């Protein structure tokens, strides 16, 4: 379990921003991850029921299994192999994902509760509602206790038929997860017609520009790394795209000083080969490899989770992962608040959060020079990027909210800042831990 040794526990005198040891924050975050570890594994549960093997296989392919495992109070409405095969034969994976996420109820319904619905009918929210693709109550399911002990399921859109019905209980772990078989897919208007471009039609730079990541898109084109991304699309790709604000952050090293090869590595570092939607990132325990990974443990990312928030650690700094701006399996784009700086290029620190080093030299020089000076003979793609305004922090950027004092920061890059709310949460939680350990001893 999670044990903070006495030496790892900061004493009250260290409860200041400057003296707070970032390693403790990291260890603590790891503990949060361990505490939040899944109570159930839907894939393993369903392995015991061959009638639902097709359903189980699609939960894995769409990575919905990971999302389900991060939830505590949930009901899965499963379809048998015949019903699933009929469904998946007709639709691409992205549509199948929408349909299946519509069959995951964010509440616990066991057979008993199904028959005790007050007034005999209710609307319940689904995982599909959480995707942000469901306007109004499109992401809700209507459960109605019909006469003769029959329970019907349908879309919550008024006038929808209840043409799916409860068949039997498959498995219950009260009150964490319930698995019930239903007779037919529940279809809501719009779910089947959801746009599902094939990966060859996807315009990566167009999507990035729309998401406020124009600088990143421009760099992908000028460096040629876009081609690498495109060729990885079919097999699955997850992009962590820094926002335009991230490239203007005070304290960001001068990226145009990198060699061309290093610039390519930096851009390749911002994508991972495989489809990893948010639920998958949340359940990831091993380091995540990237397109720049060229050996075990090289150019990878450590993922930590706290509640619904996912953070990437590079070994030099960290960055929050925002909601996906595009998610259609096998391709997902997230925006990130900071440029991800791999330790292979920007530092030698082995731990994801670098320990504060005695700073003998003055504070790190502002990284962005007012005029981009050509440093290498060859024109470098990053030098062509629009120069960011010298040292002024971007206003209104939440990532830099904690008065990004590079003077007082122990970290020398934009990605190193700990966000104020997270910091407060961690300090508070450690405070609680200290108080309870005192009370218990
Ligand atoms: C249900 O989930 C909670 C929280 O994750 C966990 O502590 C508990 O052990 C789970 N119950 C069962 C029966 O697995
Ligand atoms: C869940 O179970 C499957 C099948 O037994 C296994 O392959 C997978 O690693 C498990 N996932 C987790 C997070 O333990
Ligand atoms: C569920 O659907 C039935 C049939 O369309 C309808 O009569 C009932 O009012 C609906 N329930 C809710 C809570 O909207
Ligand atoms: C992709 O989108 C960008 C920006 O909207 C546009 O300039 C470009 O022509 C598009 N590329 C293709 C191949 O459609
Ligand atoms: C840096 O720390 C010193 C002493 O703790 C404080 O007086 C000063 O205001 C801080 N500067 C910034 C920019 O936060």
Automatic annotation (TrEMBL):
Its main location: membrane. PROSITE patterns: FAS1. It is found in: Cell membrane. Residues 39-186, 200-340 form the FAS1 domain. Residues 1-39 form the signal peptide. Residues 374-383, 393-406 have a biased composition (Low complexity). Keywords: Cell membrane, Glycoprotein, GPI-anchor, Lipoprotein, Membrane, Proteoglycan, Repeat, Signal, Transmembrane, Transmembrane helix. SMART domains: FAS1. SUPFAM superfamilies: FAS1 domain. Residues 349-414 are annotated as: Disordered. It is a lipid-anchor; GPI-anchor. Residues 351-373 have a biased composition (Pro residues). The chain crosses the membrane at residues 422-440. May be a cell surface adhesion protein. Belongs to the fasciclin-like AGP family. This is Fasciclin-like arabinogalactan protein 10. It comes from Durio zibethinus (Durian).
